[in-house]
Amino acid sequence: MADFHYFSSILITYSLSFLLGGLIGLERQIHQRIAGLRTNILVVLATTSFVNLCLRLGSTTDAIRVIAAVVSGTGFLGAGVIMKDGMNVRGLNTAATIWCSAAVGTCVGIGQYAVALLLTVFVIAGNTLLRPLVKWVNHWPISNSESDATYTITVTTDQPHASIVENKILEKLKSINFQVNGVQLTGNDNKKYEITIRLGRNITDSKDLNILIQDIASWEAVQHVAWNSDL
């Protein structure tokens, strides 16, 4: 009977870990992040197992040591999903989510089920409800005194269309809330004109620039277009 009671309590603990880890991981999987459904479930289950077994076989002091080891060990795991993509660093939020998953597992492992559930709700809310707010804030215009130009768009066209293309680009940038820090128009002996536009730092994803470049490249009289970063 004692063995059955022990097994049933472990089953409930692991089932709850699986469920809470699945809820956190599902949100990551839906948004196609590096660490998704399976990773977060395994992190929660592992931390639950470490802490729970330590409490059952050891002492509170031993459990505290295990929790400290879980915190540092999960930090190394999270570091593995952080990648540098050009000027952007990706995976920071996913790494933080893995760390939160470890915290959820720790709460379940010490029997704080309500706290674990509450933490899961807040983690999911932070990853979903705050997403539109972050995008909105990131597109706030930054004053020239506070910002150094980070990105530069260079467009090559001919003399008759130079002003038209320039105005069209500026209108396009304004419509997508890209801050313009400067515009320069230069010509050469081949009657080609180069339009150089320096952008501010309110660009959060290089994919937005790639989409913009593809759009400009399809315009009439645009011979070449590219972007680069000066950092």
UniProtKB/TrEMBL annotation:
Gene3D superfamilies reported in the protein's UniProt record: 3.30.70.260
InterPro entries: MgtC/SapB/SrpB/YhiD_fam (IPR003416), MgtC_SapB_SrpB_YhiD_N (IPR049177)
Membrane topology: Multi-pass membrane protein
Any one cellular-component term (Gene Ontology): plasma membrane
Keyword flag Acyltransferase: no
Keyword terms of this UniProt record: Cell inner membrane, Cell membrane, Membrane, Transmembrane, Transmembrane helix
Primary localisation category: membrane
Membrane-crossing segments per the record: 6-26, 38-58, 64-83, 95-125
Places the protein is found: Cell inner membrane; Cell membrane
Keyword Transcription found: no
Source species, domain of life: Bacteria
Limits of the MgtC/SapB/SrpB/YhiD N-terminal domain: 16-135
UniProt family annotation: Belongs to the MgtC/SapB family.
Name by which UniProt lists this protein: Protein MgtC
Protein source organism: Zymomonas mobilis subsp. pomaceae (strain ATCC 29192 / DSM 22645 / JCM 10191 / CCUG 17912 / NBRC 13757 / NCIMB 11200 / NRRL B-4491 / Barker I)
